[in-house]
Structures are given as C-alpha cells and as structure tokens.
Specification:
Blueprint: H1 3-9, E1 22-25, E2 38-45, E3 48-53, H2 62-65, E4 76-78, E5 82-91, E6 101-104, E7 107-109, H3 113-121, E8 130-139, H4 143-149, E9 153-156, H5 168-178, H6 184-188
Parallel strand pairs: 4-8
Antiparallel strand pairs: 1-2, 1-9, 2-3, 3-8, 5-7, 5-8, 6-7
C-alpha cells in the first residue's frame, strides 16, 4: 500500500468541534489560508463557528504592520480570510483584561484594547501570553460539519503544553503526531505531491 492509499484510509475523527478545540487541516488542502493550518475554535454553536489560524505568522515586525501600538516583539499571525484588516487576540490573562471571554484551558478571547496596550507597555503582556491575529476564520451554520464529513479537518484538544508560544513551523505536525499512529501518514505526506 503506498502513501496515498494509506492517507485516503485515514478518516476524520469523531471528536466534535467545540469552543477551545483545534481544527487541523488535512495534508492535501492547498488553500493559502488553510493549507496545514491549526485553527483555535473561539466559538462553535448553531449559528456557526469562528476561530483563528495559530500557525501562520506574518514575517514582518509587529509594529510595522500595527501602527500606534506599544513596542511588541511578538508576531502578528494571519488569523483567516474574514476581516483581515482587523486585529484580534488570544491571551492567558483572563479576568485582568476587562471584556475577555474564556475559550477554555486558560485561554481568553479579546478584551479591552486599551488595557492590552497598557499591559504591553508595562511589560506584563509578552509573546508568551498573547497572540495577535489579522482576520479570523468563519463558517456559516452547518458548513464546518459538512467540511468534517468531507474529511477536510480533524478535531483535537488543546495540548497540555502552552500553545501561545509554540513553534508555528512545527505546530501542525506535532499536534498530529500527538494524535497517534493513524495520523502519522498525514505528517509524512508531501506538501506538493506532484513534486514527489
């Protein structure tokens, strides 16, 4: 059995999408945004789903892209194709930032931007405990379920290790590896099968 046949046998798992879970794209998804993407689901309900791509950093200094902001040494990530001119953020500061919404496992979405700026200015928020995203990824009602049936994504839990400061370049592969032997074929599949 060759790699393509083995890959085709692997189906999406039975773990349901939910707030605070991760979506890992299947290896043949060649989309600019979603190819080998790791998406943190911020919300999932009957009205639809949205989240941010966690492993697509933009390779330009943060303050060159985001003006009028305190100096920040972390990356701005490509969060998705929706509202890509807007700034979104996930952090681990919870109740310290007014208006934050708990995603689960110590991660929070949004909150008062002026408080974020102040905490960065005083060195309390660092790339270890906050990530910024340009845009987000969204699905209309039942759209994500349809994509899961087509095996476009696999759902997994957040890892026990902190994910905000994980290496973006290896995140997709490491999360799949942690899911067990069945997904090893996904990690070994070439990015461009035609070049193999």
């Amino acid at each position: 059995m060759n790699r393509i046949e083995k890959y085709l046998q692997v189906k999406s798992n039975d773990l349901a999408p939910a707030q605070g879970r991760l979506l890992l794209s299947e290896p043949l998804m060649g989309d600019y945004y979603f190819g080998r993407a790791v998406i943190l689901l911020v919300e999932h309900n009957n009205e639809g789903s949205f989240g941010v791509i966690m492993n697509k950093p933009l390779h330009q200094p943060f303050n060159e892209i985001v003006p009028n902001f305190p100096d920040f040494t972390g990356n701005l990530h490509l969060g998705g194709p929706v509202e890509s001119n807007s700034l979104f953020y996930v952090h681990s500061f919870g109740d310290l930032i007014e208006g934050s919404v708990s995603i689960g496992d110590g991660l929070f979405w949004g909150g008062e931007l002026d408080m974020i700026k102040e905490l960065i200015l005083f060195g309390k928020l660092t790339p270890d405990n906050i990530c910024f995203y340009a845009g987000y990824s969204g699905w209309s009602p039942a759209q994500l379920q349809d994509e899961l049936k087509r095996n476009s994504w696999v759902v997994t839990q957040l890892p026990k290790s902190p994910i905000l400061n994980s290496d973006a370049g290896s995140m997709w592969q490491e999360l799949l590896t942690a899911m067990g032997e069945e997904y090893q074929y996904w990690t070994k599949f070439p990015i461009n099968p035609g070049m193999n």
